[in-house]
Design goal:
10 helices, single chain, disordered N terminus, two-stranded parallel ribbon, mainly alpha
């Protein structure tokens, strides 16, 4: 009889294994909580890669506004200048306008002419971004786009356009005019006019470049502001 009782109360090895396996299960979120802080930071960056690749480094709505170190500024400059699809698309748009206008006419048409115009516009952008980054570093200005901490189409639109003209200083609370960005645009425009074939008024080229920054820059910020919403509609992670 004691033997029979032991058989009834004991559990099968398979059942015990299942219970132990259930106890050992852990959700992905729980595992992430146990990761070191630096690994959690890496995981957070990976989820932001799709949008950063499109619009460049940015400050999310829930992100903290903190002054950048020189090393962080160099990283922002490199990624925004060379690793952002939006920068290449904006130059492609500008080169397309030049192609349609036939400016400069010495470069002709077709893919050859477009390639030269695109290279010239991208070179202008690199010069402008380099000068702007240097000026921002010297004045302690914020070089990244910060998403609007507001709701509604028009408030977010006003925020996007305004950030093309003002940015935070080293306090990350006080707004200042985007002097380095527009100074960089003007000087890069003058340089652009100097390397085009034929005679060009460099002052006029600088002025047109400044106006272009005001227009295209505002449009770029507008797209950036709503890019997360657009990608979210297609199922991309924020």
């Amino acid at each position: 009889m004691p033997l029979a009782t032991a058989q009834q109360t004991s559990q099968s090895p398979d059942k015990e294994a299942e219970e132990n396996a259930g106890k050992g299960k852990e959700s992905i979120q729980e595992k992430l909580k146990r990761l070191p802080a630096n690994w959690q930071s890496v995981q957070g960056k990976l989820t932001r890669l799709p949008i950063e690749w499109l619009i460049g480094p940015y400050i999310p709505v829930q992100g903290n506004l903190q002054p950048l170190t020189n090393e962080q500024r160099a990283d922002v400059y490199f990624r925004h200048t060379f690793l952002t699809a939006g920068s290449y698309l904006a130059r492609a748009f500008s080169a397309g306008i030049d192609q349609a206008r036939g400016e400069p006419y010495q470069w002709g048409g077709g893919m050859s002419g477009y390639g030269k115009r695109y290279a010239a516009r991208y070179g202008q952008f690199v010069v402008q971004n380099t000068l702007a980054a240097a000026g921002n570093a010297a004045l302690g200005y914020e070089p990244r786009y910060d998403f609007c901490r507001c709701q509604g189409f028009w408030p977010r639109t006003r925020h996007a356009i305004s950030r093309n003209f003002v940015t935070y200083n080293r306090t990350e609370h006080e707004l200042r005019p985007q002097v380095p960005m527009y100074a960089g645009a003007f000087m890069a425009g003058m340089l652009y006019g100097s390397w085009l074939p034929g005679k060009h008024n460099m002052w006029r080229s600088g002025g047109l470049s400044t106006l272009s920054q005001a227009g295209i820059g505002s449009g770029y910020n507008f797209v950036s502001e709503f890019a997360l919403d657009i990608l979210h509609k297609f199922g991309s992670k924020k």
